[in-house]
Amino acid sequence: MKILNYGSLNIDYTYRIPHIVAPGETITSQYLSVFPGGKGLNQSVALAKAGAQVWHAGMIGEDGEFLKQICKKSGADTRFISQVETRTGNAVIQVSDEGQNSIILFPGANRMNTKEKVDSVLDFFEPGDFLLLQNEINLIGYLIDKGKEKGMTVILNPSPFDENLKEADLKKVDLFLINEIEGRQITGKNETEQILAEMKKCYPRAGVVLTLGSEGAIYQDTQEIWRQKAYETKAIDTTAAGDTFTGYFLAAMMEGKNKAQALTEASYAAAIAVSRKGAAVSIPEKQEVIYGIANQKIV
Catalytic positions, please? Predict the structure, then answer.
């Protein structure tokens, strides 16, 4: 079983500040760090480090070759990462002293995918393989349609949630990975149980993973529901927490582990990630996660 992660690759410009900037406010950054990032790249790195066989497809500019190399070094197959004549996508990230973040995205090369490229990439995959998507690239609706036609298991992290997603046929998605904000945006509901109920009502055949930050995570499908408490940790930078969770959860599923095991490994890996600076560089190796869980090590 293979997993194709068709997703973004970004250069992250991270500014450390006392608090997230308010409207009309000017604030001085303590420092600027440049990291590899993008939800797509982060999730491919997490999948690879968690032991999954993952192919990454996406677009970079001339300034983004180092992102491809980082993805490759993690263990992901990068043959479907293409270079175009435009600037690589980037993100301006504010990280507060409490570890919270606020992100502005410039899509750049990430929005230069073509239907021809999508078709050529999907030709490499077979029914039963996984297709993982996030909404930092273009042609999401086309990818969902073609992946489903191919017989792949379609997995969507609908972030950022915008009009492009509203035009896609989300009823073709087999598994949603969402946080509280995305859950509210998709369902119009505010409370956890309401979000889960509305997701089951609107997408009855889909599984849903709802991450709740310090409150843990929940998995539900048509037959079962599992709840996972968050591991306590000192948050330094939460930028790649959700992406780390996604990669480890899916990798565990592909290994045939049950949902409880998948939630445990994903939650512990995410706790490690938020205790470190950066996005892709904060994602832990699998051995570190397995050892920490087995020895009940505090992150």
Answer: 243
